[in-house]
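Sorry to interrupt, but I need a hand with the structure work. I would like you to pick a protein and set down its sequence and fold. Please put the record directly below this note.
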Amino acid sequence: MKKRILIIGPNQQHNHIIAQAIEDSEQPIRKVANILYTNETIIVPNSYLESPWMHKHIISLQQKASKALFLVPIPSIKKSYPPNFAHALRVPVIGVVMYKEKEHTVNEKIITKKMLEEIGCIKQQYWLHINKEEIRAFVEEIR
């Protein structure tokens, strides 16, 4: 069974940007309301993250994953992940902060770092601007 990278995040656009970079494809990834398996990734829809009854399905996806990416957007208005959610997974977990603007307040950075720690993403944390060069470098590093 081929292991894929599990992508979990509250913003579907960010999930698809990362997945497209991992797939190394120019063709956009289609948007669907259920779990999407591609050649290299498993994309979890944000509706699964918002529903406590669907968390067990996300956890069960680790059987098919080599690692899990937990995406957190800046600015993040609400907490999307339950506390210590990453500790439920046995695969390596990577916390990824996605942002559009280069400048952020110190308060935003502190809140986001605290969110990653509450999720359980303590060991590996990356801060990525949404541009192709930075995302490609990140994908090469996690492979």
Notes: The beta strands are 4-8, 36-37, 41-43, 65-74, 93-99, 125-129.
